[in-house]
Amino acid sequence: MKEQKNYSGEFNRFDFSDYKDFIVKEEEKKRVYIFDSSVIIKWFSRIDEANLTEANMLYEKVLTREYNVLSPELLIYEIINVVRYKTNVPDTEINEIVKNLFELLIVIRLDSDIFLEAYRISQNTNSSVYDSIYLAVSKKYNTVLITADEKLYRNSVPFNFNIKLLKDFIAEKDDF
Fold first, then answer.
1. What is the CA radius of gyration of the chain?
2. Between β-strands 32-35 and 105-108, what pairing exists: parallel, antiparallel or unpaired?
3. Given this model, what pLDDT does residue 90 score?
4. What angle do CA 99, 133, 97 make, to 5 degrees?
5. Domains assigned to the chain
6. Angle of CA points 160, 166, 167, to nearest 5°
7. What pLDDT, in 10s, does the model give residues 5-43?
8. Which residues pair with 146 in a beta bridge?
9. What is the pTM of this model?
10. Main-chain phi, psi angles of 33, to 5 degrees
11. What span, in angstroms and rounded, lies between the C-alpha atoms of 100 and 148?
């Protein structure tokens, strides 16, 4: 099996110009997305839930590197916490889940600017700071945030954030 390069540890502040060996062509930038934990947790779910098929379609795109996913560190904490308390994933699989997350995602360390922007966004949208971190990262990197969280979507749309519901994103794309 070909060993994948782990890009997570290489970025304190993500910049496309620092990302040359991963995204070679300018047109590939449009294939960089942010998925929040409401999407990614579905990759590891053992229960039938809304948009599971759509989430798995995105998973296939990420596995084949057709889509590249930026993720704030927060996502790792959220996924581990959900697995711990709200899923029926066996504890023995947590190592594999964490390993997969770091292999598939580009994990971004959050800086003070993102935290402060997330706080402002949280105030404006009446969303949690946790959810607002994804919006702040999306804004900073001018990238679409894909979510399955309808409340976050409803709260964000009036403020013109670049956010799509998972089901709508899949319906609009022509590469599925």
1. 16
2. unpaired
3. 81
4. 15
5. 29-109+143-172 (3.40.50.1010)
6. 110
7. 555 544 444 555 554 444 435 555 568 999 999 999 999
8. 35, 164
9. 0.81
10. -135, 170
11. 20
